[in-house]
Automatic annotation (TrEMBL):
Residue span, ABC transporter domain: 33-73
Species, as recorded: Triticum turgidum subsp. durum (Durum wheat)
Keywords for this protein: Membrane, Transmembrane, Transmembrane helix, Transport
Keyword Membrane: yes
PANTHER family assigned: ATP-BINDING CASSETTE, SUB-FAMILY D MEMBER, OS05G0107600 PROTEIN
GO biological process: fatty acid beta-oxidation; long-chain fatty acid import into peroxisome; peroxisome organization; very long-chain fatty acid catabolic process
Name of this protein: ABC transporter domain-containing protein
Gene Ontology cellular-component annotations: peroxisomal membrane
Taxonomic lineage from the root: Eukaryota, Viridiplantae, Streptophyta, Embryophyta, Tracheophyta
Gene Ontology molecular function terms on file: ATP binding; ATP hydrolysis activity; ATPase-coupled transmembrane transporter activity; long-chain fatty acid transmembrane transporter activity
Family statement: Belongs to the ABC transporter superfamily. ABCD family. Peroxisomal fatty acyl CoA transporter (TC 3.A.1.203) subfamily.
Length: 122
């Protein structure tokens, strides 16, 4: 599977998930065609049995897991999520810091930031 560019920033304070399949890194489908909208000031309760995909929705929203289908719209900033358990990927400390990027992607990002002068705040 190839990740699509299905996540975009909203100009409004809304979280919109439309027909998103939530898939684990091991390619297990947890939820199919998930859709919901959350507007600022409103609450949404997620319920379901263990392993049904409740936590993975937040992993998708925080860009820890890629989106393969559907569309996610979220605020460009100001979102905060406290997981039940700390989420760590496999690998070295470096792999943890750059996750979900690969080493090659992280190196390309650093090079791009360095070339544009945005590596360090002045």
């Amino acid at each position: 599977m190839v990740s699509s560019n299905a996540i975009s920033a909203a100009s409004e304070d809304i979280i919109s998930i439309h027909e998103v399949d939530t898939i684990t890194p091991s390619q297990k489908l947890l939820a199919s065609k998930l859709s919901c909208n959350v507007v600022q000031g409103k609450s949404l309760l997620l319920t379901g049995p263990n392993g049904s995909g409740k936590s993975c929705i937040f992993r998708v929203l925080r860009d820890l897991w890629p989106t393969f289908s559907g569309r996610v719209i979220k605020p460009s900033e100001g979102m905060f999520h406290v997981p039940q358990r700390p989420y760590t990927s496999l690998g070295t400390l470096r792999d943890q810091i750059i996750y979900p990027r690969s080493r090659e992607e992280a190196e390309m990002k650093v090079l791009s930031l360095h070339q544009t002068g945005k590596m360090f705040c002045h």
